[in-house]
Amino acid sequence: MGGGSGGGYSSSTAGVNDNASELTGAFPLTKSGSFGEAGRGKVRVIVSDNPSLDGKKFFDIAAKGGKVTQIVFEKGPKSGQFKGWKASFPNGDVVTYRPKTKSSKNPGIQLTLGPGRIKSQKIHFEKKEK
What we know:
Helix content: 10-25%
Strand order of the largest sheet: 1-2-7-6-5-4-3
Order of helices and strands: HEEHEEEEE
Largest sheet: 7 strands, mixed
Shape: globular
Number of helices: 2
């Protein structure tokens, strides 16, 4: 999942938008460049039968070509504990994956992107109601 030995970039991909075809094939994109449906505030929501699997899949596709590093809690009682993964790209794009968000027990993705087909957004993966 990472940058291989040495921790560098794993390919010549400049940013997340270079992964747009594969990402939008798995997760449809709106005309405005957002994934999923509007949620609370500015959060987008992707409804899924398996939020954990789909959240990780989204990250794995979006992070291709980025330098992937583990992130940990820096302060408080969870200091030093695993928080998620971050993929950084040569063009400054960043994809952050958290297996559990503060507001739910499901995964969340934060896309911080430059100009392109896909825009910056926060996405939560939620369980499909039966």
